Amino acid sequence: MKIFFNNEDFDGQFLRMLSYTAYGGADIGECFETASRIKEGDRGSWYEALTETANRVRQDGDRSLENGHKVSARRSYLRASNYHRAAEFYARDDPNDPRSLQGWQASHDCFAEAAELFDPPFEAVEIPYEGTTLPGYFFRVDDSGQRRPTAVTMTGMDGYLEETYFSVIAAALERGYNGLTYDGPGQGGVLRQRGVPLRADWEKVVTPVVDFVLGRPEVDSDRIVLVGRSFGGYLAPRAACGEHRLAACVADPGQFDLFDMAAARLPQEMGGALQTDGQALESILDKMMEDDARRFFFAARMRAFGAKTPKKLVLMQSEYSLKGRVQQIECPTLVCDNVTDTVAGGQGKLLYDALECPKGYIEFTAEEGADGHCEGGAQVLFHTKVFNWLDQTLA
């Protein structure tokens, strides 16, 4: 559904930002007023308008806090964090663009200010990982010390751990789940601050995360669930192939093989060139890069995946596959799909059919107002269906 912009990509990102209104991440009037100052298809205009709004809202939070209005301050900081994240989306293609690190840092800092104003406060954590740490947050339902089910989640290819508060954690807390979110390789500050790209074997990331969760006294070790949204729809089931201490796994949307997905997206003229490492493939991709929108698409992904050329990016997608691995998933797995999701390309059903563990399948539709990638403007509906399934599965 069109919300504001004629440019479908801009409109999709606008809806992504707007959808978090349900959990305090946006205010409708602020979003539409900001959109009115954005020039259609102009990424620089997008960054400037959203950054201006984010800074103003953050200042509102500062004034509220100075005057003892903690709830108002918390809500302002949450919105500012989301607006800064949305602003950086169109500056993330170039690691040398200072706006990328600045936008991430501002979003990160605003969320950190909000985190201290919750009751109980959100706890910033560092998760041991391969000689270093991964940044994250642990979210407690309360201070009772009761052992509870815990939802572990991470962002996808272009978000931050802070965004997952709106996309997963807030709904989990409402339902009595603790939460843990983190940035892994290729995500959030791990990419923007440290320059560490994605890795295909996500089980190597999730295993130390589960180790960390199991060390928390508030966590019921038999009820740890992993939720992956957007590109997390590949990362979560891939992790579940090798990490068998999970009680359940959710993939939204389910993704099975990135190379096949890339092949379905690319122009027909690529034909057999896609199956080779030859000059033909390189020539076609170089031609595609002359288009500004395609250049941004490739450049942003090259940065996240650590690929030096478009050809390398396309070919390395073959590493991101569940073929020959999906049978290793043991925990109950819920695969979400969407009839109009152009990102995952309908791979949810492929993943579901290949699973040999207990499984569930939900297809979201336009008739529910849930069309588009990650259910667009239907976050409450998504959480209703997913957490109902999780409650029943864990019971």
Could you describe the 3D structure shown?
This protein starts with 7 loop residues before the first helix and ends with a helix. Helix 9 (232-242) links the parallel strand 5 (219-229) and strand 6 (248-252). Helix 4 packs antiparallel against helix 5, helix 6 crosses helix 15 (379-394) and helix 8 (203-214) packs across helix 9. It has helices spanning 8-19, 28-35, 43-66, 70-88, 98-115, 164-174, 188-192, 203-214, 232-242, 258-265, 279-288, 292-305, 310-316, 347-354, 379-394, and strands at 123-129, 132-139, 148-154, 178-182, 219-229, 248-252, 333-338, 359-364. It has 15 helices and 8 strands. The longest helix is centred in the N-terminal third of the chain and has 24 residues, at 43-66. With 395 residues, it is of the alpha/beta class. It folds into 3 domains: 1-117, acylaminoacyl peptidase (de novo design (two linked rop proteins)); 120-257 and 320-395, Rossmann fold (3-Layer(aba) Sandwich), CATH 3.40.50.1820; 259-318, no CATH class. The protein is globular and about 65 Å long. Helices cover 46% and strands 14% of the residues. It has an 8-stranded mixed β-sheet with strand order 1-2-4-3-5-6-7-8, sandwiched between helices.
